[in-house]
Amino acid sequence: MKKILCAFLTLALFCAVGAGCRPNIIDKPDDEYEVNLNVDKNISETLTILVPSNDGGLEESYIEALKPGFKEMFPNVEIKLDRRTISDAKYAESISSAIASSNVPDLFYTNTVFYYYLVSKNCVVSLEPYYEATKKAGTLDLEADYYNSFFNMSTYENKRYVVPRSMDSVVTYYNTEILQAAGIDPETDERFSNDWTWEDLVSVCYDLNAYFSSEEGKAAGYGNAFALHADFDWEAVFNAMMLSYGAEVFDGEGKVAVESENMKTMAKMIRELAEAGRILRTSTSGSTFGNGNCAFHFSSLGPARMDLNAAIKGKFDALPFPLIGKDPKIGCGFAGWGISSTTPVGAKRDLAWQFLQYMISKEGQSALINAGLATPSVRIDLAEEKAWSKGYQDLNLDAWLVGEEYKVSSKFFVSQAPSCTFDILTAMQEFMMKLVDTDKSVDSLVIACKEQLEEAVSFA
């Protein structure tokens, strides 16, 4: 039986990395199961947690920070880490490999986009039984104590699958030294505010473009600088922009909709900026915000992480993502963990939930913050206290918190088979990159994107 199972998993792994829209890895789990919130404190067990191996040890450090507090709760529980490559290109392969291993993780690391793949492969279970039980027991009140919307981001068919460790919102960093050199003072310039618009950003970018191209700017060392390090191919950015323009990847019937006039209007706006001079850096440019050669940058990093860049240390501040049009959106998302469907119903699955609930407790969130978590906590009290940004109180920390009514996570792929997610994402990333990196016409890029999307979903 064991040999048959191994052969099946090997075949699943081959299919998962070799097909466009990939088949399920394991059978669909039962979403209605019994839970026990009163796990024996003396339970002897091992929890295996999947973490990225290619993020410089960031997520691993967070799990390590949670271990001592969890050990106090369950002294006989050992936590092991399963380190694997986590990226757009490698996530499917890493998950398939993990499932095929002899020790499948009990908790899968995922994020705003990747979770959809886990659900499609039946790798994680619905957490609704735990949410319902904790609400009934009064031990977890998402509506009162948390930014509930970030828990809802991992919803599929009205069921939530992931507990977020923190909340990520796209903000606009700016280099104070560059702006000062260009004669722009954010303290007095009316374009700089927590409700600034895309027009405000573009206006400042054109001023910077003129400065970078001037003899004065070149003499000051900014001849190779750019106004905006945009990362338009980042789904948190392009999704918010698309929605602000009233554009969408698929229409209400699930058909490819990128040929709409709204999408073309957005694309032409980006192309106009790309052709204007030193406004948008290309993806291959050596000039970045981190090395001090771009004035603005869209990012979800907290200030402590941004401050690790020596070239801009102490030389930046932030504003929210600029509001676009009459129905503006701000990109946001999450990173977190879901419980493996291979972790059996009973004590071990209940223990995995205990770890997740500890992670979002005040003690657990404080441990993450002390370990360097530099984005707002999912807990309202810790987020509003700015506990996640100690030492940076002089910065505009409200940039991460304002505009809650505008915030959206990426859902442009949910009308399609979940296993097509990465192919859809790749098509949109290439489209957005080529608007800046190439001189191909907007119309031709739209057509190419449409064809790539149609191919991506054709195997579903």
Automatic annotation (TrEMBL):
The keyword Signal applies. Pfam families: SBP_bac_1. The keyword Cell cycle does not apply. Transmembrane segments: none annotated. Residues 1-19 form the signal peptide. Keywords: Signal. It comes from the Bacteria. This is Extracellular solute-binding protein. It comes from Candidatus Borkfalkia ceftriaxoniphila.
